[in-house]
Design a protein that fits this description.
There is one protein chain. With about 425 residues, the chain is an alpha+beta fold. Among the domains are: about 100 residues, no CATH class; about 45 residues, no CATH class; about 100 residues, no CATH class. Strand 5 and strand 6 form a beta hairpin. Bound molecules: zinc ion (ZN). The site of zinc ion has 8 residues, from loops. Zinc ion binds next to loops.
C-alpha cells in the first residue's frame, strides 16, 4: 500500500518516525529558496501538493494520493510540514529498511518501463579526488573524466548465468492483423486442437467503424473478410461498451442529454444495419438539421455552417473551442485552411520548414541536383507537415507534440496565435485545463 500522509504518532510510532526522518519533502519554496529542488523560484517536484480527501487518478493515469488536512505536522529544520509535503511511501518498507524509499504504483502498462529502467541503470556514483594544494601534481584530464561505468556483483552474476531479465504473466502478445500470412501464433501442444491453441486472445475495436480493406472488393467480399464471418466467431465472447460517457459528466442539461441519446441511438442503428429509409435497405436519410444544403460553393457552405459570422467572432476562444471541421483527407484540410486564412483580415506570415538535403545520408555528391528544393517542396506526405504554413494573428492552431504535459502543452492542445515573430510564435492555450 502506498500512502502520502503522516502516520498517527500514537498508533504507528515507528512509521511516524520513519516518515518524519526520510519522507518529508522540503522545506522548500519561500521558506527555503536554496533547496536543491528549487528552480526559477518553483519547486521542481511540485511540493507542497494540494490537500485531497480521496486518492484518484489524473487524466494521464497517474495517482493523486489522499492527503487530508488533518492538522498533523512534523517539525523539519524548525519548519512545520503537513501532509502536503509527504513523499509517497510504503510504511513497511521504510520502517524495515530505515531509509528513504520511493515507491511507484505501476497501474499503467507504460509505467512498467520504470521497473526496467531502474534495474538496468546501476547505482548512482560519484568520483571524488583529494589533492594536496602544496605539491601540484600533473593533471591527467582523461583519467579525471573517466566515467566509471560498472556492473554490480549481483547483476554480473545474473547475466553470467543468463537468467531471465524479465517475465510477464499472463503473456500478452499484440497481433497485427490485416497482414495476410504474417501473424505468428505459438500454440502450446496440449491445446493445439482448441481455437487459438486455448490461449486467451483479445480482439478490440468497433466493427461498425473498422472494416477490413479488400482492394476493389464488393460489399459481400468485405463482409466475408470481416471477423464475424470467421468460422471461429461462435467461440468468441463479446463484451460491449454501451454507456455514452458524454452523458454522464453532469455538464449537459436534461434536454441536451435527451437530444444526444436520440442521436446516439440513431447512429448505433445505422452501425448495426437496422435503420434504412428505403425498401431495398440501401439508403439512409440524414435529418435536415445535420445537413448542409447543396450549393455552388460547397466549401464555403461548410465554413459558413460550422463558423457562422467568422470574421466578427474568430478572436473569441469559446467560439473556436466549440467548433472543428473534420475531413477524411489532409488535402481537404489544406484547401479549407487556405480558404479560411484568406477570409481572415490582417497580414499573414508564411513559415517554411527546414529544407536542406542531408549530406550525410547519401553517398553521391550531386543529390542537390537530383532532388532540387523545388521538387522536394512540392511533395506531400501523410504524417509530415507541408513545406510552408501560413498563419495570421488570431488563428487557431493545434500542437502536435507533447511539449510540456504539466503546463498543458500536449499533442492535441488547441491554441490561438497571439504574435508572429521571426523565429518564434506566441500563442494562448484555448483547450483543456490550462486555458490562457
Ligand atoms: Zn521542493
Amino acid at each position: 500500500m502506498i500512502t502520502a500522509e503522516i502516520p498517527d504518532m500514537e498508533l504507528y510510532p515507528d512509521g511516524y518516525k520513519a516518515v518524519k526522518n526520510y519522507m518529508m519533502h522540503g522545506p522548500c519554496g519561500d521558506l527555503n529558496p536554496g533547496c536543491p529542488c528549487m528552480k526559477q523560484g518553483k519547486c521542481t517536484k511540485h511540493f507542497p501538493k494540494k490537500f485531497n480527501n480521496q486518492t484518484n487518478f489524473d487524466a494521464d493515469g497517474f495517482p493523486i494520493y489522499r492527503r487530508r488536512n488533518t492538522g498533523t505536522k512534523v517539525d523539519k529544520n524548525n519548519v512545520f510540514l503537513d501532509n502536503r509535503n509527504v513523499v509517497p511511501y510504503n510504511r513497511n518498507l521504510i520502517v524495515k529498511f530505515d531509509a528513504h524509499i520511493n515507491v511507484e504504483l505501476c497501474n499503467y502498462s507504460r509505467s512498467v518501463k520504470y521497473l526496467f529502467k531502474y534495474v538496468n541503470k546501476g547505482s548512482n556514483r560519484a568520483t571524488i579526488g583529494i589533492e594536496c594544494s602544496d605539491t601540484p601534481t600533473e593533471r591527467d584530464e582523461i583519467k579525471r573524466y573517466l566515467d566509471c561505468r560498472y556492473i554490480s556483483t549481483t547483476e554480473a552474476c545474473w547475466r553470467i548465468f543468463s537468467f531471465d531479465i524479465h517475465h510477464r504473466q499472463p503473456e500478452v502478445e499484440r497481433l497485427p492483423f490485416h497482414l495476410q500470412g504474417e501473424n505468428t501464433i505459438v500454440f502450446q501442444e496440449e491445446s493445439a486442437d482448441k481455437p487459438f491453441g486455448g490461449l486467451t486472445i483479445i480482439f478490440g475495436g468497433d466493427f461498425r467503424q473498422i472494416l477490413p480493406v479488400i482492394p476493389k472488393g464488393t460489399r459481400a467480399d468485405i463482409l466475408d473478410a470481416s471477423l464475424n464471418s470467421s468460422c471461429l466467431w461462435p467461440f468468441f465472447k463479446i463484451y460491449e461498451l454501451k454507456q455514452n460517457m458524454r452523458l454522464c459528466c453532469g455538464r449537459v442539461s436534461d434536454s441536451e442529454a435527451a437530444e444526444v441519446t436520440t442521436f446516439d441511438k440513431w447512429l448505433l442503428q445505422i452501425g448495426d444495419g437496422s435503420f434504412y429509409s428505403d425498401v431495398d435497405n440501401d439508403l439512409i436519410k440524414v435529418p435536415t438539421d445535420i445537413c448542409i444544403m447543396p450549393s455552388n460553393d460547397p466549401i464555403g457552405s461548410i465554413i459558413d455552417a460550422v463558423y457562422p459570422s467568422l470574421l466578427q467572432k474568430y478572436s473569441d476562444p469559446t467560439y473556436l473551442q466549440e467548433r472543428a471541421i473534420l475531413t477524411p483527407k489532409n488535402e481537404m484540410v489544406h484547401e479549407l485552411n487556405d480558404k479560411i486564412m484568406k477570409m481572415i483580415q490582417g497580414e499573414g506570415r508564411t513559415y517554411f520548414s527546414s529544407d536542406n538535403v542531408c549530406k550525410a545520408s547519401v553517398n553521391t555528391n550531386d543529390e542537390d541536383l537530383l532532388y532540387p528544393k523545388e521538387f522536394l517542396n512540392s511533395l506531400r506526405f501523410p504524417g509530415i507537415p507541408n513545406i510552408e504554413v501560413q498563419l495570421k494573428v488570431g488563428t487557431p492552431v493545434i500542437l502536435l507534440r507533447n511539449q510540456n504535459q504539466s503546463e498543458g502543452l500536449c499533442n492535441g492542445t488547441r491554441l490561438v496565435v497571439t504574435h508572429l515573430g521571426n523565429w518564434s510564435i506566441s500563442a494562448n492555450i484555448i483547450s483543456e485545463k490550462n486555458i490562457g
